[in-house]
Amino acid sequence: GAERVRSRRWRLPGPAVLSALFHKDWNYLWRSPMPRRLLFSAVVIIVAMAAPMLNTSRQELPQPIQQAIPLVTVAGMLTLLSMALNTGMSANYFGAMDREGFGTLSASGLDRRYVLLSANLTTLLFALAQSTVLVIVVALVTRSWVVAPLGLYLALCLQIGGAPAYNLASIIGPYRTQLKYTGGRQRGSMWGLLAWLVATPPVLLLIVLPYVVWKPGLGVMLPLGLVYALGLYALTLKPLARLLQRREHTILQAITAQD
Fold first, then answer.
1. Ramachandran category for residue 14: left, alpha or beta (phi over 0 → left; psi -120 to 50 → alpha)
2. Spatial separation of the C-alpha atoms in residues 19 and 92, rounded to whole Å
3. Per-residue DSSP letters for 232-247?
4. CA 168, 174, 177, 180 torsion: positive or negative?
5. How far apart are CA 116 and CA 233, in angstroms?
């Protein structure tokens, strides 16, 4: 009875297999040491950038630049948060989060698209939770309330639009995450950093640049940012799922290798 009620409550729309995979990934999210290490990334970034943000003198700046500073600030913070979360989690998902379950998945007949969808949804929720904290703090400090919806929208587009690159990094550069920093992590970290460098600029150009340069263009560019992110994700999901299936043995060897 209770188990059945719980599963009905948490059931995602769509195929039952996707919901089951999401439950597995969500449980592994909190069992892995990596999310706990990244849980306070937003706090660290806020503390590191709070002093420059508060000490910046805006009175002598032109009005358009003054208005753009809060969003540019939150965009910079979200970009750094995205780097920390995605290089540590998304770009090495199977080695950092799904080490236990990947062996079973690789031997199953599951559609690998659901595997990637579940992993990306789990990471998206984790990233949005931290982004929400960061955006609210910046909005309160700067008293610029437009930062809240635009910041969360930017965080959403950064995560969805970057997911294909991070999926690719997790497939071609997997490694076994360790609690201690060792030379064995470098390969995976480099793939993740490269994915972040490739994935981030297009989203920033579509959302942040129009706000700074030409605000009337936001009516077109904001929807276009989400269309770009979702379109890129939809176009790459099937090819990446096929690549994942072809490389499963290699990934399994990499993430189960002992130091």
1. left
2. 22
3. HHHHHHHHHHHHHHHT
4. negative
5. 11
Q: Do 159 and 208 touch, CB atoms closer than 8 A?
A: no
Report residue 137 as tokens. Answer: 């703090």
Q: Which SS3 state, helix, strand or coil, does residue 14 take?
A: coil
Measured CA distances, 138 to 30, 63, 132, 143, 194 (Å): 27, 19, 10, 8, 28
Per-residue buried b or exposed e for 119-158, using 16+ beta carbons within 10 Å of the residue's own CB: bbbbbbebbeebbeebbebbbeebebeebbebbbebbbbb
Q: CA-to-CA distance for 110 and 248, rounded, in angstroms?
A: 13
| Dist CA 86 CA 81 (whole Å) | 8
Burial class from Cβ neighbours inside 10 Å (0-12, 13-18, 19+) for residue 196 reads: buried
Q: Report which DSSP code applies to 182.
A: -
Model-level pTM? 0.84
The stretches in the chain having pLDDT less than 70 are: 1-10, 40-43, 45-47, 49-66, 98-101, 103, 106, 176-189, 257-259
